[in-house]
Amino acid sequence: MALKLLHYQSPLRYAYFSLSLSSLQLRLFSSEKTPFDHEVDKVFRIINDSSSPQKLKQSLNSSGISLSNQLIDKVLKRVRFSHSNPLLALEFFKLIGKSKGFYHTQFSLDTMLYVLGRTRKFDQIWEILNDVKREDRSLISHRTLQVVLGRIAKVCSVRQTVEGFKKFKRLVPEFDTSCFNALLRVLCQEKTMVDARNVYHGLKGQFKPNAVTFNILLSGWRSSEEAEEFFEEMKELGVKPDVVTYNSLIDVYCKSGEVTKAYQLFNKMQEEGICPDVITYTSLIGGLGKAGQPDKARDVLREMREYGCYPDAAAYNAAIRNYCIAKRLGVAFELMNEMVAKGLSPNPTTFNLFFRVFYWSNDLKSSWRLYQQMKKDGCLPNTQSCMFLIRLCKRQEQVDMALELWNDMVEKGFGSFILVSDVLFDLLCDVGKLVEAETCFLQMIKKRQKPSNVSFRRIKVLMELANKHEALENLSQKMAIFGPPIQIRKPNENFDDATTLRSIAR
């Protein structure tokens, strides 16, 4: 193969506060790209523009780019966060993997499996895993198992997820407790805690539960009674609780409003010689806020330093959230000021606490001012930030603001194009801005982001009414690069939901 392969394993002046962010964040907000970034872009375009595996091979050969593991990982990561054709990415993955002496990294394998799983290409997933098993079984880790089962669990039943888990017994180097824990983690995230509990009891005889097992099972409960049952079983089996165990149970107590129990457990862990960490205190801060005691939570923020535990951004965010819920924005901004004075930079989560308050009070002016300052100080908004802003823009029919946000996203690459574009296209179509809608649609496709079929149909109808047949034909051709719409099977289709979990342990 002629492919060249290299294998190697600031002040924020808004209302009440003044913040300063690092030069690193400012560089992150910069649109400048390195030569390496341009190579990633080029390979990504080659993958999406290739009409066949042979064309893909020829284009890569003539590109003159040395395809290292680092570059391949970056390209596949780009594929993951776009909605380009997964089968073309798979051809790229296979083509590179066939090169003599070349092996994919665990990252590239897991990323490729995630992309295929997202589009329900489960047959291709098992095909890849069987190939990898023959070539380098060590690449298949418990993280790989978690990636695959996570995609299966999203659209299939609990029984089918467990059946997928059992297939890994002949794939992974060691089918051990870490694999069992990965399954439980998936069920906690994608199904219900009841499902995770039932599977745990069905399979625990085949594995040796450890502290991680119980920490996973403790972390998702809203009911303290259920969590306490696992805590008792943990002690009966002689598994020693660690700081994560106590943090999980304290968090359950705080979320269920049982702050007194949380403090009792907090004292108990100290008696047993386990030092509370920043996560412990963050849970207590959140619990006190939920109990309507934001000032006491702020005292915890101060007191934890006396015990040698210094608050991080998440701890400050928990305290700020309490005051935002109490609509005491002045104190919330003071805490943000204090956060910066302690050398911590507010992150998008911090700003979203304020965006949420402004959104529910329909205050676009304050939201927009905060967004402008956020840009000025180099803090990249995340998808939630963008959704608060674009929905406010739609609600108040502020087209110019919505388009400015969109153009910032296109230029800087932050936020979800898919989610934001749906709201943006609704706004533009509502006010008759068809030319702007077409422009944004084309910008999105140029970014290799697929507009939703719902948005496309709405723009299509308006273009037909406006007799813009040539423009519509152009958009239709552009959409064709993403292939036909994916037919997603409904969860549990062709599966008897009445089937019990008794067969899990077989």
TrEMBL record:
Keyword Repeat carried by entry: yes
SUPFAM superfamilies named in the record: TPR-like
Cross-referenced Pfam families: PPR (PF01535), PPR_2 (PF13041)
Protein origin, superkingdom: Eukaryota
Keyword vocabulary terms for this entry: Repeat
UniProt repeat feature PPR, residue ranges: 242-276, 277-311, 312-346, 347-381, 382-416
InterPro entries cross-referenced by the UniProt entry: Mito_RNA-Proc/Resp (IPR051240), PPR_rpt (IPR002885), TPR-like_helical_dom_sf (IPR011990)
PROSITE patterns for this protein: PPR
Molecular function, one GO term: mRNA binding
Gene3D superfamilies attached to this UniProt entry: Tetratricopeptide repeat domain (1.25.40.10)
Family stated for the protein in its record: Belongs to the PPR family. P subfamily.
Name of the protein this chain belongs to: Pentatricopeptide repeat-containing protein
Gene: LOC110683804
